[in-house]
Write a structure and sequence with these properties.
Layout lengths: L10 H32 L2 E3 H8 L3 H10 L5 E3 L2 E5 H12 L1
């Protein structure tokens, strides 16, 4: 790997250029992250799969929590849904 020389650039100018590039990259990544999580928060009801992904647990864990009354399921036919608001409240209660 060779040496790179920056002609007519002070160390402070180089630091400012790097800082601008890093901050703009972080802003883009942050906005993408916020936009991807907004969709789930707007939904009132989540499927078992969505809850599993959101909480990072398996289906069997969700089933166990349903049996123990930690999560309250809403059933339509053979499909199971959970209120996003109730999941957030359950998480907040568990922190106490």
């Amino acid at each position: 790997m060779g040496n790179v020389q920056f002609i007519q650039l002070t160390p402070q100018e180089l630091a400012e250029m790097i800082s601008k590039e890093v901050s703009s990259s972080l802003e883009v990544q942050l906005s993408e992250l916020l936009n991807s999580s907004v969709g789930k928060e707007e939904k009132e009801y989540l499927s078992r799969k969505e809850v599993s992904e959101y909480l990072g647990v398996s289906y069997s864990c969700i089933h166990d929590w349903m049996k123990r009354g930690i999560l309250s399921p809403y059933k339509i036919g053979n499909r199971t849904f959970f209120q996003f608001k109730e999941i957030k409240e359950t998480l907040l209660k568990s922190k106490e």
